Amino acid sequence: MSTLVIQDLHVAIDGKEILKGLNLTINTNEIHAVMGPNGTGKSTLASAIMGHPKYEVTSGSITLDNEDVLEMEVNERAQAGIFLGMQYPSEINGVTNADFLRSAINSRREEGDEISIMKFIRELDKKMDYLEMDQEMAQRYLNEGFSGGEKKRNEILQLMMIQPKIAILDEIDSGLDIDALKVVANGINQMRGEDFGCLIITHYQRLLDYITPDHVHVIMQGRIVKTGGPELAHKLEEQGYDWIKEELGIEDETVGQEA
User: Fold this and answer.
1) Strands 166-170 and 197-201, how do they pair?
2) Ranges assigned E (strand) in 36-147
3) How far apart are CA 197 and CA 219, in angstroms?
4) Which residue, among 210, 145, 129, has the nearest Cα to 172 in the 3D structure?
5) pLDDT digits over 178-215, tens only?
6) Pairing status of strand 82-85 against strand 31-35
7) Residue 243 to residues 51, 106, 250, Cα–Cα distance (Å)
8) Which CATH number fits domain 3-93+167-248: 3.40.50.300, 3.20.20.80, 3.10.450.710, 3.30.1360.30?
9) Where are the domains of the chain?
């Protein structure tokens, strides 16, 4: 079992504090969902875990299996087993999808134990079929010319091929139609197990209709203010966030715009 532990995390952007003492523990074999109004720190949390240079961690800690994540470079965090599925995946000209994936897989393996071409191709073909992706996408440049739905499926393809310990999926459902949403959800569900944990950042219940989370957390004012099971997401869908604000005496939730 692996564990990602976030303790008293404070994060600022351009000197403005966004996260204000956030605590969260994610174990493998668990799926966590994070919800909350715009601007409360959801995407900031994802970027801080992965080490985006724009996000300054001013205090607190992040550890993976007792190793200090904040002391790692971005590539070291990925090699340690942390994966970020981005809301807006980047396009990279000149690097094919297949070459990127094979390099990413080999970066997490011991030197001299690289995945063979034949095994890689078999696994890639199988997972692309599962995600209903055209096989020619393997030889296209990474995300270049992909539609929004194709980019999101490609993020899940990367997840399934790389097999990280902990995945952070930042609004992986945005812009997806119902059919694509089901395919993406199926890919995430196939990953569930003792060697995989996931943090899903989402605004909507609809993704959680297909992926049942073990824990649902609400972020407000830069902290997790409420935690529950799947029923919490349903209540938020029906009633919004005002009842939580009233319960906690929060008058103004606006904390600034997230990047």
Assistant:
1) parallel
2) 55-64, 67-68, 82-85, 92-96, 141-142
3) 20
4) 210
5) 988 999 999 999 999 999 999 999 988 889 999 999 99
6) unpaired
7) 34, 48, 10
8) 3.40.50.300
9) 3-93+167-248
